[in-house]
Amino acid sequence: MLSTALIKDFEALLGKANVFSDEADLQSYSYDSAVLNPVTPALVVRPTTTEQLGKCVKMLYDNGIPMTVRGAGTNLSGGTIPDKSDTVVILTNALTRILEINENDLYAVVEPGVVTAQFAVEVAKRKLFYPPDPGSQAVSTIAGNICENAGGLRGLKYGVTKDYVMGIEFFDATGEVVKSGSRTVKCVTGYNLAGMMVQSEGTLGVISQAILKLVPPPKAQKALMATFADVQDAADAVAGIIAAHVVPCTLEFLDNNTIVKVDDYTKAGLPVDAAAILLIEVDGHPAQVADEAVVVEKVLKECKATAVHVAKDEAEKFKLWEARRQALPVLARCRPTTVLEDATVPRSQIPAMMKALGEIAAKYKVDMGTFGHAGDGNLHPTILCDRRDPEEFARVEGAVDEIFNVALSLGGTLSGEHGIGTAKAKWMEKETSRGTIMFSKRLRKALDPKGLLNPTKLVGI
After folding, report:
1. Confidence class of residue 323 from pLDDT cuts 50, 70 and 90?
2. Contact residues for 316 (Cβ-Cβ < 8 A; gap 6+)
3. From CA 344, how far away is CA 60, in angstroms rounded?
4. Helix (H), strand (E), coil (C) string for the chain
5. Which residues contact 121 (CB under 8 A, 6 or more apart)?
6. pLDDT at position 42, please?
7. 141: closest CA among 193, 98, 82?
8. Lower Cβ count inside 10 Å, N or C end of the chain?
9. Which pLDDT band holds residue 268 (cuts at 50, 70, 90)?
């Protein structure tokens, strides 16, 4: 229980409108998008300047109170669920200024609460391009993307959030300002603390500002949809396109279960009788796009695609990609509980992983729809269930365990873009090593000796 005096100190700093203590308000910040039990925080505070943000961190540190920083709460691994009922949640959704978009030097400077899609639109107005596009981009924030190292549909060609972080300012556990990186293309001043903050999930500091790399937009694009009568043929086509030395902007996979449910909701005209579809986009110089599209079509046909459709205009292309982005929201409507995973394998192992997912779904008798960024090996097997049914959920947990075991056996990873949080922490040592876990714990202890920054997340403290 927080003292009345401390709550009044927060109200004096932030204003009463930005300090939330009512039970209904607190419950709104007790969960994220992971299938985990909610934890109601002791207080929620909402700084409106980065100076206030630093003071909030210092006040909590000085009083020995654990803190969890929250942007939009779209993460899928429990990273923004409060650790215990004495935790204070710090919201960054009022820190939404785009401080600079530099068209000459190709960078931008933003506050932590800037919404990803809105930022991309502002950048595009300057005829520049910010490629990271997580599925939650319409609401997710830049600092959250950095803390989770968010990916997205364009990750295959353009990389993920870490590839666009040039510099970060953040507050350490005590509220001191730390700066790392620069507006310059090259910077080797001191430790790469900006890199350390990427995918740190709020355990090493609180981001107050980010410098992000921008790039010129592609001059041309071409989108294709390939239909397959067999899932394994689609998986072989993914590996075949990469083996042909073509790196599409996007290379997405949807299985039949996902296709049917998405088309029923979006009316996008997807082939509902297909076992699987691939959505592919190549981009770049017009001549390169034309050449690569020919190669892609050839591979698709060699891999037994029953049809290859080229989007005739921008509107049709948008409709296809919007259908893909609706995959998770649509599946989530089908049953009370949605267990979304992102086990990721080397691209050449996509056929083996797809085969294994089918076998796992049958073995555990679970309703699984699979979609994802097949081009970079990042699949999202999504299990639809009801957590209130103990017998069913036990089968779901068994299926998830086996999904991770198979992914690791194929040289893959527990998480391509969703993070570890608390949801996947128990599997960390299986992928890394005992030494890795202990090294990470010592690092956390050195930077946060009181153990107040998101204490139980990743490896705990």
Report:
1. confident
2. 223
3. 37
4. CCCHHHHHHHHHHHCHHHEECCHHHHHCCCCCCCCCCCCCCCEEECCCCHHHHHHHHHHHHHCCCCEEEECCCCCCCCCCCCCCCCCEEEECCCCCCEEEEECCCCEEEECCCCEHHHHHHHHHHCCCECCCCCCCCCCCEHHHHHHHCCCCCCHHHHCCHHHHEEEEEEECCCCCEEEEECCCCCCCCCCCHHHHHCCCCCCCCEEEEEEEECECCCCEEEEEEEEECCHHHHHHHHHHHHHCCCCCCEEEEEEHHHHHHHHHHHCCCCCCCCCEEEEEEEEECHHHHHHHHHHHHHHHHHCCEEEEEECCCHHHHHHHHHHHHCHHHHHHCCCCEEEECCCECCHHHHHHHHHHHHHHHHHHCCEEEEEEEHHHCEEEEEEEECCCCHHHHHHHHHHHHHHHHHHHHCCCECCCCCCCCCCCHHHHHHHCCHHHHHHHHHHHHHHCCCCCECCCCCCCC
5. none
6. 96
7. 98
8. N
9. confident
| pLDDT higher than 90, residue 321 | no
**Residue appearing with tokens 């139980």:** 456
